[in-house]
Amino acid sequence: VNSDVNDLAQRDGDDVLEVLLSNARVPSKPEPRFKLLGSADLHALPPLAWRVRGVLPALGLGSVYGPSSSGKSFLVLDMAAAIAEGREWFGYRVNAAPVVYCALEGEAGFRLRVEAWEQANRRKLPDGLRLVLQPFKLTEPQDVADMAAAVCGAGNGAVTILDTLNRAAPEADENASADMGRILEAAKELQRLTGGLVVAVHHSGKDATKGLRGHSSLFAALDAAVEVTRDGDRRQWKVAKA
Q1: HEC sequence for 175-238
Q2: How would you classify the pairing of strands 99-103 and 159-163?
Q3: Cβ(99)–Cβ(83) under 8 Å?
Q4: Which of the 8 DSSP states describes residue 3?
Q5: Mean pLDDT by 10-residue block, N- to C-terminus, for the chain (242 residues)?
Q6: Any bridge partners for residue 132, and if so which?
């Protein structure tokens, strides 16, 4: 068609130009990247969902930490079994979820821990608790992606336990801000990909009263933390952050 707008105006009158302009598509204004929330928006957000009520959230990054030989791994194994079963844990209500336990330290002896748990509880580990005994590095993006795929295969909202954080990032300097930043970003990426909770088992520093070993950014980044202590034969734990 060789006619143009002028030909259309001569044929149908000048009013046709106004019709054309009114029907013209005006580019929409892009939505802002960052959403500004007010008080009403905050109150409308869904309430915090707990995995272990008052101890660990259903989503986020947590840690169980303490000195060597304090019983961290035994405690975390029992917690993992409770979550997989959906049973009460130390009097705290638990919302059931699949659990993937990455035993990265003392892999050869982990079987003995499982046997001890099964003897003490007179039953097998729950089916919802799965173990990974292969090496895994948070500092390797492909490892993070592959682990996330395995965890997602265990079920929705699964809990991922990394025992220990040091073995999950063996080449990183825990005391360096940059290295700890990379570790935290990788752990958060694992959490994002799995859509659940990631719990890192970690050691206390030389001065146990100062909490987690390594850079202070670690404790600041956690959504929850459980501290394990030992005094002779007495072992106990407490919520350090929730």
Answers
A1: CCHHHHHHHHHHHHHHHHHHCCEEEEEEEECCCHHHCECCCCHHHHHCCEEEEEEEECCEEEEE
A2: parallel
A3: yes
A4: -
A5: 60 62 68 92 91 97 94 95 98 98 86 93 96 95 98 96 94 93 97 97 81 91 96 94 92
A6: 102
